Amino acid sequence: MNIFDTLSNHGVVPVIAIDDAADAIPLADALIAGGLPLAEITFRTDAASAIIKAITNERPDMIVGAGTVLTEAQADAALAAGSQFALSPGIDAAVLAHARKIGLPFAPGVMTPSELQIALRHGCEMVKFFPAMPAGGPAMLKNISAPYAHTGIGFNPTGGVTPDNLADWLSLPQVRAVGGTWIATRDDIAAKNWDKISQNARAAVARVQDIRGA
Ligand SMILES: O=C[C@H](O)COP(=O)(O)O
Ligand SMILES: CC(=O)C(=O)O
After folding, report:
1. Tell me: the pLDDT tens digits for 64-88?
2. Ligand 1 neighbourhood includes 35 CB (under 6 angstroms)
3. Which pLDDT value is given to residue 115?
4. Distance of alpha carbon 36 from alpha carbon 7, whole angstroms
5. For a substitution probing ligand 1, which of 158, 166, 200 has the most ligand atoms within 8 Å of its CB?
């Protein structure tokens, strides 16, 4: 099973920004306890590489990807730290070509048909649809993806996804997994609200199972 199939199985990818690397393992344990052993650790903080490395080394069963990967150097750092995949809010052909060269599965962000076609040209299997709600929500994704259904490309809507609109996204067959910060917000991580994060994860897992009829 490839990494994007694994994300699809979970249906939800927690998008994480951690300021203090010391919070990495407690956060991973909170997500694992909630039954959602995966995370997109964003390169929005300087601690990203150290966090990915710590989780990969100390919690090897956790699935860890890198988010907000904007440069070739960040792609290198993400892979070296142990990331199994990477994503970004937008699309950059040079970064995509580099990720492919180093063997890092990469899902770039798209919001227009032209961006989607660039992703297809680069052989992407999954793209982030960002910012999902402001860009038009599930109705927009349904329309924009229709001409490309035969390519099999999958989507990871991120930006404004919440438990309230989760069913609208996951009911679209082209949506493989949503992304969102609501499970582990930057504030909850900074306040070390580990139980709350576990509860959010558990609720998300239950909601996905409910929506998918599992
Ligand atoms: O910064 C944006 C994140 O990628 C998604 O954020 P959100 O889940 O808080 O809307
Ligand atoms: C937008 C997003 O989730 C990212 O920074 O990768």
Report:
1. 999 999 999 999 999 999 999 999 9
2. no
3. 98
4. 10
5. 158
Run of H or E including 28: helix 24-33
Q: Residue 70 carries which side chain, given as an amino acid letter?
A: L
Q: Is 109 in the pocket of ligand 1 (CB under 6 A)?
A: no
What is the predicted pLDDT for the residue at 214?
64
User: Could you write out the DSSP letters of every residue in 82-130?
Assistant: T-SEEE-SS--HHHHHHHHHHT--EE-EE-SHHHHHHHHHTT-SEEEET
Residue spans of the domains in the chain: they are 3-208
Q: Extract the residue ranges of the chain whose pLDDT is less than 70.
A: 214
* Contacts of residue 123, Cβ cutoff 8 Å, sequence gap at least 6: 100
Name the closest-CA residue to atom 1, ligand 1: 159
Ligand 1: does its nearest atom lie under 6 Å from the Cβ of 83? Answer: no
Euclidean distance between CA atoms 35 and 117, whole angstroms: 35
Q: Does the Cβ of 181 fall within 6 Å of ligand 1?
A: yes
DSSP 181: S
The residues annotated with a catalytic role in the active site are: 40, 128
Rounded Cα distance, 144 and 91, in Å: 16
155/145 Cα distance (integer angstroms): 9
Task: State whether ipTM is beyond 0.85.
Answer: yes
- Predicted pLDDT at 1: 79
Architecture of the domain defined by 3-208: Alpha-Beta Barrel (3.20)
